[in-house]
Amino acid sequence: MYLVIAEKPSVSRAIAEVIGAQEREDGYLQGTDCMVSWCFGHLAELAGADVYDEKYAKWRYDDLPILPEPWQMVVSKDKKKQFDILKQLMNAPDVTEVVNAC
């Protein structure tokens, strides 16, 4: 089984039509040997400075540069469901390949 990840739902529908993934599921389309899912822009992004320390919530020249170690990523609340769906699909035992169609 291979998983194709597109940048947005409309692109994933077009890809799914071509490769035969017509069965609608929650957050993806399923075919005989493939699944097609999508992102909504950036699902994960770099954490804001205040995530590392509350004192960075208000920017001050004296605090610069802010160089966290390690860098953290965050998923916005409105994209969390799709992020979790993609994570589940990518880790499914029958998925052997992931295609980035973004």
Give an overview of the whole structure.
This protein has 102 residues and is of the alpha/beta class. Helices cover 25% and strands 26% of the residues. The protein contains 3 helices and 7 strands. The chain has a 5-stranded mixed sheet with strand order 2-3-4-1-7, with helices on both faces. A two-stranded antiparallel ribbon has the order 5-6. The longest helix is centred in the N-terminal third of the chain and has 11 residues. The protein is elongated, with a radius of gyration of 18 Å. The two termini are 19 Å apart. The mean pLDDT is 95.
Query: What is the 3D shape?
Result: elongated
> Overall mean pLDDT score?
95
**Residues in helices, as a percent range:** 25-40%
Please provide the ordered H/E string of secondary-structure elements: EHEEEEHEHE
Number of strands: 7
Structural class determined from secondary elements: alpha/beta
Beta content comes to 25-35%
Output the strand order for the largest sheet. 2-3-4-1-7
Number of helices: 3
Q: Tell me about the biggest sheet? A: 5 strands, mixed
Low-confidence stretches: none
Query: What integer value in Å does the Rg equal?
Result: 18 Å
Termini separation = 19 Å
